[in-house]
Specification:
The protein has 204 residues and is an alpha/beta fold. The strands form 2 sheets. It has a 5-stranded parallel beta sheet with strand order 5-4-1-6-7, sandwiched between helices. Strands 2-3 form a two-stranded antiparallel sheet. Helix 10 links the parallel strand 6 and strand 7. Helix 1 packs antiparallel against helix 5 and helix 5 crosses helix 7. The longest helix is centred in the first third of the chain and has 12 residues. The structure holds magnesium ion (MG).
Length: 204
């Protein structure tokens, strides 16, 4: 069986920068962008949201009451999701793998607002066979629970999965399950390793 290729999203296919959202949200509230960054990343709020323990509306409500943000939920959604930039060589790698007939999956710690934004703005995101998203399963990488979901959804285990992620702790859980893994340090190295695995050989 040829391996299914499992892609992390953030810093693998899409770069992101929360400071952009922090600036835009802070501009309509009473915290500085720095205070807002500390509030979002320094408390369990985002973690709880990405673990699926609160809805987008509840997350928005918590941001409003803590920061004085005065935009609508729609405005908040547009701002909060607008932190991404595609990593061109990786998006191209994904489409090459698709052309060669490989199954591909997205495996991400993320949230509903981010995914809604990505789905609407990046055509490549609709081209995967499946999506394993933390908030839909109440578990975050590197919790093994979410890796079991990958195995169930892909119908594969061990060396039939090739997993790319930029975080060593996430990769480690995959490797411990016998998956083939690539720690993404830069797109060029990842693409070189995919070539070494033989996935880009021959016509396709
Ligand atoms: Mg990542």
């Amino acid at each position: 069986m040829s391996p299914a290729v499992v892609f992390d999203l953030g810093k693998v296919l899409l770069d992101f920068d929360y400071s952009i959202a922090a600036r835009n949200i802070a501009a309509r509230g009473k915290m500085t962008p720095e205070e807002l960054g500390v509030f979002i990343l320094g408390t369990s709020l985002l973690l709880d949201y990405e673990t699926g323990l609160m809805t987008s509306k509840e997350f928005y409500g918590r941001i409003c009451s803590a920061t004085g943000y005065c935009g609508s939920l729609e405005e908040f959604a547009a701002t909060f999701g607008d932190i991404f930039a595609p990593i061109g060589p990786m998006v191209e790698l994904h489409s090459q793998l698709r052309r060669r007939g490989f199954s591909t999956y997205v495996f991400s710690n993320t949230n509903d607002l981010a995914i809604r934004f990505v789905r609407k703005n990046y055509a490549f995101f609709s081209q995967f066979d499946g999506y394993i998203l933390s908030y839909e399963h109440r578990a975050m990488k590197p919790d093994a629970t979410l890796y079991e979901v990958v195995e169930r959804i892909t119908g594969r285990q061990g060396r039939d999965l090739l997993y790319i992620d930029d975080r060593p702790e996430n990769i480690a859980t995959g490797a411990a399950r016998g998956w083939q893994v690539i720690l993404q340090e830069c797109p060029e190295r990842t693409i070189g390793q995919i070539r070494e695995f033989g996935l880009l050989d021959g016509p396709g």
